[in-house]
Amino acid sequence: MIDSGITAWMLISASLVLLMTPGLAFFYGGMVRGKSVLNMLMMSFGAMALVGVLYVLYGWSMSYGSSVGGGLLSEEGPFAAIATPIDFAGGTVVHINAGVAALVLALVIGKRKGFGKEVMRPHNLPLVMLGAALLWFGWFGFNAGSAYAADGLAGLAWVNTTTAAAAGVCGWLLTEKIRDGHATSLGAASGVVAGLVAITPAAGALSPIGAIGLGLVAGAISAAAVGLKYRFGYDDSLDVVGVHLVSGLWGTVAIGFLAVDGGIFYGGSPSLLVVQILIALSAIVFSAVITLAIALPMHKFLGWRVPVAHEVSGIDLAVHGESAYESQASPTSSWDIQK
């Protein structure tokens, strides 16, 4: 029998998660240079189109068909003898995975022309903040929807999600103020995402007070980590490593301290902390190996980089034949040809 209340909540949650994709498009679209913004938007919207079809053809069967096992995080997984791992909504499989993949790809592809020599600031900060707001709203479906019911656990995840996001903003801005003397709008938007990333694996396991501490630390350490790309020379143009990898690792490992059920700060043994560290390391190794296995052959035989001329003129004009802003329009763009 279908429960109408649960079904309604899951449909709402799925719709909220769908909203995160254009939110991410705006967030990252504002962070890139103006000559590349349409390409960034198109990658997000193109993913919606492609995945929307693939889910019907393959995704549903993969999600709900028969399975040979439960994987690393299941109660039958390899770490279950130590303690049952906790990843409420995907801190390992989404954020650590994405952060490691971003780092590997940045190293394989190489730096943009002028990286470290030219100033490459976000071209549209209002767009970044709009994207962060949409992500914050959509993340309620991502985290609270992972309760798979409209119950108390979903309510706790909802409260922890918004609390950690708010604390992430505070942690990031405090770090900026102390380090740089001012707090920025980019920092506020990035702090939202850092807090949301950190709470993703822990949304159903922490108290709201724990979520505040988690978000504060996430915002602070990610604010410090985004500058590592200049020190070590990798071109992480969207700060995926500094935000998603760093805050994803923190959120996953911090469960061992802050979880109400089994965390060290609540009288638990170190076993939960150990298993959380193990699943984080497993996600790092898995993502690095698989990403390299895909990226290196593509880099050798197909090539990742656009031609230097296209990089200089802008990917929007080169790939899409259009520009986001009139000042960048080409007299030979497809729009002018149609006119």
From TrEMBL:
GO CC annotation terms, alphabetical: plasma membrane
Coarse class of the primary localization is membrane
Stored Gene3D superfamilies:
Ammonium transporter AmtB like domains (1.10.3430.10)
**A Pfam entry, by short name:** Ammonium_transp
Oxidoreductase in keyword set = no
Q: Where in the cell is it found?
A: Membrane
Q: Which residues cross the membrane?
A: 6-28, 40-60, 80-107, 127-149, 155-174, 186-203, 209-228, 240-260, 272-296
Task: Output the PROSITE patterns linked to this UniProt entry.
Answer: AMMONIUM_TRANSP
**Residue ranges of every copy of the Ammonium transporter AmtB-like domain listed in the record:** 8-69, 76-325
Family stated for the protein in its record: Belongs to the ammonia transporter channel (TC 1.A.11.2) family.
**What is the protein's given name?**
Ammonium transporter
